[in-house]
Amino acid sequence: MCQQCEDPDRSGYLERLREGVADRGWLVQGVEGAGPYPPWAYTVGLSGYGLPELVATGLSLRTAANLLNDMASHSLHASPPEPGERIPLRGGPLIEVVPLAEPSAHLVFAVALYGPEIRALQLVHADDQGRWPWSPEFRDGHGGQPVLGVRHVR
After folding, report:
1. CA distances to 39, 47, 100, 101, 112 from 116, in Å
2. Is the CB of residue 64 less than 8 Å from the CB of residue 40?
């Protein structure tokens, strides 16, 4: 059973998140996939620096955590990515930054720590052929990466 499930009022889990964020600056919260819904993950803690939280969908939790940790570190030391920006990842896919339409609907624990007015950016990735999830050909029509906002075309 997960830590969240063992703590029905979430107070103990939220306290562990607060401590982890205070110790490390941010954490990555993973959400297991279920049925037709793929796994996804998001940062918790960047809001404390006045930055948007970061989200990745449709990747394994390990891959998403690596991506989010790298981008969170960059955001703290340089600047966060901008909506519409495309970023080639070394050894990985091209990503495009999409602002979440309603972060409070998806980032439950970030909202619990920082309130419903948080901002968030999704790191949307192209498939192996360079196609995006808004294309019907993405992953040869198999989808698997929900986009939680509207593209900001530059």
Report:
1. 23, 11, 13, 13, 8
2. yes
Distance CA 45, CA 55 (A): 12
Residue burial 99-112, b: 16+ Cβ < 10 Å; e: rest: bbeebeebbebbbb
Adjacency order of strands within the sheet including 27-31: 27-31, 40-44, 53-57, 120-125, 94-99, 86-88
Give residues with Cβ within 8 angstroms of 103, minimum separation 6: 53, 110, 111, 118, 119, 120
Q: What is the pLDDT along the chain (154 residues), one digit of tens a residue?
A: 444 445 556 789 999 999 999 999 999 999 998 888 899 999 999 999 999 999 999 999 999 999 999 999 999 999 899 999 999 988 878 999 999 999 999 999 999 999 999 999 999 999 888 889 998 888 776 667 999 999 987 6
CA nearest 117: which of 129, 103, 128, 130? 103
